């Protein structure tokens, strides 16, 4: 409403030999869905939803260049159209090459209103060879469709970038076509979020005779790299690519950016530097969680044309300027991949939980066929990818057994052996058994499920404390029976001459901060905690934190873990309240803004380095994968840990 005109995606082309044209319109929608509109007798119009079926949608989606339809909508879901309602009571079988081959009441013969406009949802897969680039058209409040005038090749580098902020700029070309022209002299800088923000001029008078000797501007976007590597800038704390807390590398140390004067122009510079399009949102107030360590930059003020955030004016931070509660974040415009159309949840108490179902292709009647995922081996990493693909944020739990109501009548296991690293965009990118489904326990009870959340904990190690407290101890074997029972020693200890001899241990204190937007809780409730007789305490989780000793080239030579017999709020930031305490069989967890401290003198708070040769190594800490909440942030390495000769 605030723009003089709105950009509309290019029209779908009709099949060869047909005089019809089709397009998707309406809002809100994605590029492969919308109100279906048809160009007939020199006028655009809609189709009534009376007797509309998926078969109709399949024919129409093929007109638009998509392979098939996955659904259709009624009652003007994408908004009411204008003008004629061209078709009513359309009845297709689904295999027709054109809507002209389907039965209907005839062109222009309808008793419907625009409140009954039909829409289609097409599968996000193009017909091979189908033209998917076309003349750029614009729509104004008081004008019909029109074309921006072909301009010199500066159009190819600047206006196109504004046209496709969610796709990396690709190859561009122009085609001659005599149609109505509305705009000329479009002069974008390339930094605009929307083409309407670029300077331009309207044609007046005869629009068909305009642009003499010129041609309509045409854009074609091609995929670019999803991530940029080797940058001194990164995003942390987001649920999906293109969003997160902005962190920059300065003097070999990662730090955050203060949100003072943080703007959409500055955020767009960051997005482009990371390989995405322009920015969708500039986030302030640690919306993507609080970082740790230094705050490197303050009052960053980009004009939007810079290639890097480091080219923008900024101020160095002082202690009184900012706190991590003011960490800046961004959300970038990223390409729509359509991943969420091939996954769904069923049976849950809310849209954020349920049994996971994946699309297995088309069924016998042409509708999508859905299947369950085998729960064997399903965990937090797999749930993280599923929640990301669903667009539901973070994973709270990955469920190997589900007791949800069988809402969709889907009972067949369609996928098994799913193993994800946690960074994939879709479950289809994870390892799996493919068509050779192998699930020992069948039935809906043993299907995988998820509980997703829009917020998550973000667990970070306070690295300086490890450096300050680390030391080596030679501990007698007779004092390590309980530790051996809980697998806190290297495997070589099993061959030791118990109770004689000793093990060499790297001991240290650790402090895990929850800088996210949700409390971290153990996956299991108190009724499921495991009692360890030797140490005389309960474990709420198998493993909370991994400790690894690596060679400079990344080879692991020793490992340890924190077995969580107690997760509690040891201390909290000013203004934050403690909620979790282990005393008297209390509730365990780490609250937002608090941290859990394990002192160096606690049993198992070490790495057994008995078998490690003298030298320099990297100490790496990673979050446990078996608990609830989000997987802890990035693994953190501390170089320069040196074990000298005994």
TrEMBL record:
Q: Name one GO biological process term.
A: collagen fibril organization
Q: Name one GO molecular function term.
A: copper ion binding
Which PROSITE patterns does the record cross-reference, listed alphabetically? LYSYL_OXIDASE, SRCR_1, SRCR_2
- What protein name applies here? Lysyl oxidase homolog
The cysteines covalently paired via disulfide bonds are: 48-112, 61-122, 92-102, 188-198, 258-322, 271-332, 302-312, 420-430
Q: How is it modified after translation?
A: The lysine tyrosylquinone cross-link (LTQ) is generated by condensation of the epsilon-amino group of a lysine with a topaquinone produced by oxidation of tyrosine.
User: Residue limits of the SRCR domain?
Assistant: 22-123, 133-222, 233-333, 343-453
Q: Name any cofactors this protein relies on.
A: Cu cation
Species for this entry: Sphenodon punctatus (Tuatara)
**Keywords associated with the record:** Copper, Disulfide bond, Glycoprotein, LTQ, Metal-binding, Oxidoreductase, Repeat, Secreted, Signal, TPQ
Q: Which gene encodes it?
A: LOXL3
Q: What class of enzyme is it?
A: oxidoreductase
The Enzyme Commission number assigned here is: 1.4.3.13
Q: List the record's Gene Ontology CC terms alphabetically.
A: extracellular space; membrane
Compartment(s) where it occurs, according to its Swiss-Prot or TrEMBL record: Secreted, Extracellular space
Similarity field: Belongs to the lysyl oxidase family.
Lineage, please? Eukaryota, Metazoa, Chordata, Craniata, Vertebrata
């Amino acid at each position: 409403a605030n723009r003089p005109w709105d950009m509309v995606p290019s029209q779908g082309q009709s099949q060869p030999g047909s005089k019809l044209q089709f397009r998707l319109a309406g809002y809100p929608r994605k590029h492969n869905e919308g109100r279906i509109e048809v160009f007939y007798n020199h006028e655009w119009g809609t189709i009534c939803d009376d007797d509309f079926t998926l078969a109709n949608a399949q024919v129409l989606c093929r007109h638009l260049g998509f392979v098939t339809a996955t659904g259709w909508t009624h009652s003007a879901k994408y908004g009411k159209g204008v003008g004629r309602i061209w078709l009513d009571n359309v009845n297709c079988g689904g295999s027709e090459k054109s809507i002209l081959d389907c039965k209907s009441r005839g062109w222009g013969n309808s008793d419907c209103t625009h409140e009954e406009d039909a829409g289609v949802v097409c599968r996000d897969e193009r017909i091979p060879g189908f033209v998917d680039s076309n003349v750029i058209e614009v729509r104004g409040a008081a004008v019909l469709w029109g074309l921006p005038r072909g301009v010199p090749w500066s159009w190819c580098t600047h206006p196109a970038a504004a046209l496709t902020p969610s796709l990396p700029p690709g190859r561009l070309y122009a085609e001659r076509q005599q149609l109505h022209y509305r705009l000329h002299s479009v002069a974008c800088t390339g930094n605009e979020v929307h083409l309407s923000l670029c300077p331009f001029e309207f044609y007046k008078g005869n629009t068909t005779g305009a642009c003499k000797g010129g041609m309509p501007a045409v854009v074609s976007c091609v995929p670019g790299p999803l991530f940029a590597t080797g940058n001194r800038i990164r995003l942390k704390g987001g649920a999906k690519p293109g969003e997160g807390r902005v962190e920059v590398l300065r003097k070999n140390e990662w730090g955050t950016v203060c949100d003072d004067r943080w703007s959409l122009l500055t955020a767009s510079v960051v997005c482009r530097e990371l390989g995405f399009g322009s920015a969708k949102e500039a986030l302030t107030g640690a919306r993507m969680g609080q970082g740790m360590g230094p705050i490197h930059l303050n009052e960053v003020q980009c004009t939007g044309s810079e290639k890097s955030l480091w080219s923008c004016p900024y101020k160095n931070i002082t202690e009184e300027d900012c706190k991590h509660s003011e960490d800046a974040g961004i959300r970038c415009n990223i390409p729509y991949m359509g991943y969420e159309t091939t996954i769904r949840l069923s049976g849950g108490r809310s849209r954020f939980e349920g049994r996971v179902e994946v699309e297995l292709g088309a069924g016998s009647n042409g509708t999508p066929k859905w299947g369950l995922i085998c729960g064997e081996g399903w965990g937090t990493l797999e749930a993280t990818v599923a929640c990301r693909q669903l667009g539901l944020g973070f994973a709270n739990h990955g469920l190997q057994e589900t007791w949800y109501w069988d809402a969709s009548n889907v009972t067949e296991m369609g996928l098994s052996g799913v193993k994800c690293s946690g960074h994939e965009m879709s479950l289809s990118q994870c390892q799996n058994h493919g068509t050779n489904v192998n699930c020992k326990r069948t039935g809906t009870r043993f299907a995988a499920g998820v509980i997703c959340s829009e917020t998550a904990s973000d667990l970070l190690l306070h690295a300086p404390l490890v450096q300050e407290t680390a030391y080596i101890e030679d501990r007698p074997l007779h004092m390590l029976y309980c530790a051996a029972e809980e697998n806190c020693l290297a495997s070589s200890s099993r061959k030791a001459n118990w109770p004689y001899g000793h093990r060499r241990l790297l001991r240290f204190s650790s402090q895990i901060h929850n800088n996210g937007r949700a409390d971290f809780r153990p996956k299991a409730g108190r009724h499921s905690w495991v009692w360890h007789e030797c140490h005389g305490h309960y474990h709420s989780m198998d493993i909370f934190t991994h400790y690894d000793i690596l060679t400079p080239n990344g080879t692991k030579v020793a490992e340890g873990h924190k077995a969580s017999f107690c997760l509690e709020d040891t201390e909290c930031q000013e203004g934050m309240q403690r909620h979790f305490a282990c005393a008297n069989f209390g509730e365990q967890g780490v609250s937002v803004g608090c941290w859990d401290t394990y002192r160096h003198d606690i049993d198992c708070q070490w790495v057994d380095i008995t078998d490690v040769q003298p030298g320099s190594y990297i100490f790496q800490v990673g979050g446990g994968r078996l608990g609830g909440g989000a997987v802890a942030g990035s693994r953190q390495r501390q170089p320069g840990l040196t074990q000298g000769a005994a």
